[in-house]
């Protein structure tokens, strides 16, 4: 197929198009997209293992993410490769460790309850915008460590404008970014970014002087030390906070949107979740989340890896300049790995835990999502609270998915009808069992 047609297929129907290519060409195939180097998609778990464990100087995922630089800044862990990436990642790991996340449970739970209190019942509602609002609030409070007040209000108001800048494909092209500097949409973006940065630098400065102990991610970044003992600079901290926002806000909201979309069509799963929540269990809840993320990985492919040094994977040798892509969505829908792959069936994950190279919503290896424990905790809290309060019903035929930058989101904004569960007693004085972050 001519490159132009391949590009249209990939851009307009990324899931169906790559499924067709796999059916036709087998577990590894090359796409030639307009103006891009060859993209080789790998879907054999043994190839994915090799992809994720290749040495850091052989494959560079960071280079492909350069277009995010105007938003996340040059120090962002997402943009770095090789030794500098490893060093930056090491600084951030403790802040996102499961044990640390545990301390954020109370705050996340409180914000979740507040959001769910406002959800309308017995009428169609689009949950995706509400979930976006919730995941933004959770990041601003638990990662940025903002307290209620003017600064939180200002950032809550301005940040979405900066994030949506990436919605326009033109603004994402580095060449266009250089040309547009100071003008039109890009100029507005730059001014909004300057305003946000002023607030963030003021926040970092205040928090450096404060000696209160806090549980948020910012506290951990302030305490982190480079290998030479020096603290992270204000610019580094700013860039990593915004990186967490870019990487963790839409992704978690869309995953939750897909969860509600699937639950709306699976009353038996809802009943099982509600029964388990009443008994304080969480095995089925975890299995449900694993299955939602298998069926609908919001990043159908983890970061593309640019080959820097010739590498052999699965008997094929790829020269420098080729881009390797781990086909997470395709692995998740391989009937050899997941029988009846289009069925939504949490029970798959009761008997066996997700496989390192067969369950890939968070990517893998040394680039694996830093916020995975954070996102899973958040999803568990929201789905548990919702399954205690509501039943969820679909409003019509399934609408599929919509592409948003490199992520997919529910096609109809996760439109459902919620009904109040008759058994739910709102008793805020009762101690809530803490879900454990994993
Ligand atoms: C359901 C929600 C989420 C999904 C599906 C998701 C998925 C991913 C994926 C696929 C990658 C690329 C991994 C690779 O290429 O191997 C990634 C990277 C990353 N994610 Fe997430 N993510 C989610 C939530 C979050 C959250 C909440 C945060 C932070 C609070 C976060 C922070 C990051 C960071 C910093 C990276 C870059 C890691 C690196 O380059 O070393 N993510 N995520």
Secondary structure: elements and pairs:
Layout: H1 3-12, H2 14-25, E1 28-31, E2 39-42, H3 45-53, E3 59-60, H4 69-72, H5 82-92, H6 98-102, H7 105-117, E4 124-126, H8 127-142, H9 150-164, H10 174-180, H11 184-209, H12 217-223, H13 234-264, H14 267-278, H15 283-295, E5 305-307, E6 311-313, E7 316-318, E8 323-326, H16 328-332, H17 348-351, H18 372-389, E9 390-394, E10 401-404, E11 407-410, E12 415-420
Parallel strand pairs: 2-8
Antiparallel strand pairs: 1-2, 3-5, 4-12, 5-8, 6-7, 9-12, 10-11
Shape: globular
Count of domain modules: 1
Query: Which class of secondary structure composition applies to the elements?
Result: alpha+beta
Rounded to the nearest angstrom, the distance between the terminal CA atoms is 45 Å
> Which strand order does the major sheet show?
1-2-8-5-3
As a percent range, the share of helical residues equals 40-55%
**Low-confidence parts:** 428-432
Q: What fraction of the residues are assigned to beta strands by DSSP?
A: 5-15%
Remind me, CATH topology? Answer: Cytochrome p450
| Total count of strands | 12
* Number of helices, where a helix is a run of at least 4 consecutive DSSP H or I residues: 18
CATH superfamily: Cytochrome P450
Mean of pLDDT: 91
Q: Can you identify the CATH class?
A: Mainly Alpha
Cα-based radius of gyration, to the nearest Å: 22 Å
The CATH architecture assignment turns out to be Orthogonal Bundle
């Amino acid at each position: 197929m001519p490159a132009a047609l391949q590009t249209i297929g990939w851009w307009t129907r990324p899931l169906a198009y790559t499924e067709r290519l796999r059916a036709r060409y087998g577990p590894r195939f090359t796409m030639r997209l307009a103006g891009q180097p060859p993209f080789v998609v790998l879907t054999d778990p043994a190839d994915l293992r090799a992809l994720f464990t290749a040495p850091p100087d052989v494959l560079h995922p960071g280079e492909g993410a350069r277009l995010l630089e105007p938003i996340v800044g040059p120090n962002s862990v997402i943009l770095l490769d090789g030794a500098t990436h490893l060093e930056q990642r090491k600084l951030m790991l403790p802040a996102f460790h499961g044990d640390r996340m545990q301390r954020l449970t109370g705050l996340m739970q409180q914000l979740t309850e507040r959001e769910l209190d406002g959800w309308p019942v017995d009428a169609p509602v689009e949950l995706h915008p509400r979930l976006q609002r919730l995941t933004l609030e959770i990041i601003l409070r638990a990662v940025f460590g903002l307290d209620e007040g003017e600064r939180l209000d200002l950032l809550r108001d301005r940040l979405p404008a900066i994030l949506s800048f990436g919605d326009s494909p033109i603004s994402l092209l580095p060449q266009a970014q250089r040309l547009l500097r100071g003008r039109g949409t890009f100029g507005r973006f730059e001014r909004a970014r300057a305003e946000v940065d002023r607030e963030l630098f003021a926040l970092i400065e205040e928090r450096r002087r404060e000696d209160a102990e806090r549980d948020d991610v910012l506290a951990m970044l302030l305490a982190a030390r480079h290998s030479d003992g020096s603290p992270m600079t204000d610019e580094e901290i700013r860039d990593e906070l915004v990186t967490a926002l870019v990487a963790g806000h839409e992704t978690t909201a869309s995953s939750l949107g897909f969860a509600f979309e699937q639950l709306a069509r699976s009353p038996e799963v809802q009943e099982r979740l509600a029964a388990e929540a009443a008994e304080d269990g969480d095995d089925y809840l975890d299995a449900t989340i694993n299955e939602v993320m298998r069926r609908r990985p919001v990043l159908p492919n983890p970061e593309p890896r640019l080959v820097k040094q010739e590498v052999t994977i699965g008997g094929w040798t790829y020269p420098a300049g080729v881009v390797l892509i781990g086909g997470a969505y395709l692995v998740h829908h391989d009937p050899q790995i997941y029988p009846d792959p289009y069925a939504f069936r949490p029970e798959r994950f009761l008997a066996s835990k997700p496989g390192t190279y067969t369950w890939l919503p968070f990517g893998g290896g040394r680039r694996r999502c830093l916020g995975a424990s954070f996102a899973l905790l958040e999803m568990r809290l929201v789905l548990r609270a919702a399954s205690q309060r509501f039943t969820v019903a679909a409003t019509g035929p399934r609408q599929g998915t919509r592409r948003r930058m490199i992520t997919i989101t529910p096609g109809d904004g996760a439109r459902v009808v919620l009904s109040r569960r008759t058994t739910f007693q709102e008793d805020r004085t009762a101690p809530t069992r803490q879900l454990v972050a994993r």
